[in-house]
Structure prediction request, 563 residues.
Amino acid sequence: MNFKNKLVHDLKAISGDKHILTTLWRKEKYCKGWRYGEGKALAVARPGTLLEIWKILKICVKKDIIVIVQAANTGLTGGSTPYGDDYDRSIVIINTMRIDNIQIINNGKQIIGLAGSTLYDLEKKLKPFKREPHSVIGSTSIGASIVGGVCNNSGGSLVHRGPAYTELALYAKVNTEGELELVNELEINLGENPKEILNNLQKANYNESDIIKSNKLASDNKYSEIVREIDSNTPARFNADKRLLYNASGSAGKIVVFAVRLDTYPEPQKKQVFYVGSNKPDDFWQIRRDILKTFKSLPRLGDYVHRGCYDAAKKYSKDNFIVIERLGTNFLPTLFELKRYVDIISSKLKFFPDYFSDRLMQFLSNFWPNHLPKRMENFRDLYEHHWIIEMTDDGIDEANKYFKQFFKDKKGDYFECNEYEGKKAMLHRFVSASAIGRYHALNAKNSGEMMSMDIAFPRNEKEWFEKLPPEIDKLIEVKFYYGHLFCHVQHQNYILKKGIDSEKLKEKLLKIYDQRGAEYPAEHNVGHEYFAKPILTDFYKKLDPKNIFNPGIGRTSKFKNWK
Prediction:
């Protein structure tokens, strides 16, 4: 029996034939990123228990196999898949989505999320407790995992919560001697050896007395103060912030995380969405400073949309909007899975056009009438810049009084959304993130490459709205701008003109951001799209000294022992 066959045989003995994928057809969706990156893997394992993950890891480490662990594989920078074919060892992908347990502890104030548990399921589980998870929009809706958010220091839309963070986790690492270790930092008494610990956790076989009231953090408890520091010359949040690099948090797959322990948040009693429009970026700059500096209550959310992105989302994200509105976010992960399968099948059949699923969905959406409220459409015609701000409880009156006073002598305006308008505004902003992908798919023959920038600007940055030098601007066909304005995080997405080298252009853009004191990526992981800065590289090397887990992340070395 050759090496590959022996390995596959051993893996099947652990998880069963059905859950060890070796054919190109079955491996494809696990080897290709949601929007970026792809590569080859010897096999994809879909274990059903934490103990199975541990057993697979032991085999892979012993046989000198690279391990890439992924959950929902919804990341935008390709960090949960192989990238290219220049690795020095074979690769096994471990997909954790069968292990989706969520355990509620401390009367709903904290949770234990196992490796494949999702933010969407967590949101549903917390409803009876009137609590919320860290993220309640965006990645939640597309099936992203709880552990993935922590490992990638994911940001999210909510103003006062910061990146997903915890110091309480259960994970496996390879030490400097090349040995596999299980580290229990959940601060729950689960047993003495890996088999005991993993089985007890999976079955929730522990009592309240086994849960240690830890002083370690299960969320970023300082962010609400940091975001208010409006005169600081550094960003409020970004992926490589050393303050938030701690074992599982920010690990980007350099250790294998079995579970995390996280805080939850009380639901607000009242919510109110304000829709703000202006033609002057300085107006938004002033509003941001005033609210963060003077309001007793921080906004819950404050998401910016440029008119160009508004229009693109109206046209190219219409189908996503309709699906979510009519069928709910519960159907969205299924839709994305279906889309993946359709694209895989159509790519094998030559008579189908490229991006067949996108073309079909776009065609069908054209028959649906305008789905956006009249007042939003009026603001679109009047104003270039749009800001959706959600206040809660006492903050609602604060905002109302402020906006009335602010716009007395300004040419911009605002309105209080009714429930119907508020839901539409929030949903329109959410689906705007998919517009660039659809535009690119439909115009790929005549347009250049797609490029997405995730930028965190310093808190004192006044020129938050991008003004590109003419020599760069002329290289870009279309720009889509949206972001989390209170946090000063901007998503700056471009479709380049035909023939323009995206890597060279990215270098020029990043130099501009460097000069302005910006950090990148802001809320997504470096994946295989960005270069990891020295602080991240050092962190990765400390976690994984043999470079066995997810090598090449952040464009670091793909070779054993970091050579």
Notes: The domain at 271-445 is CATH 3.30.70.610 (Alpha-Beta Plaits).
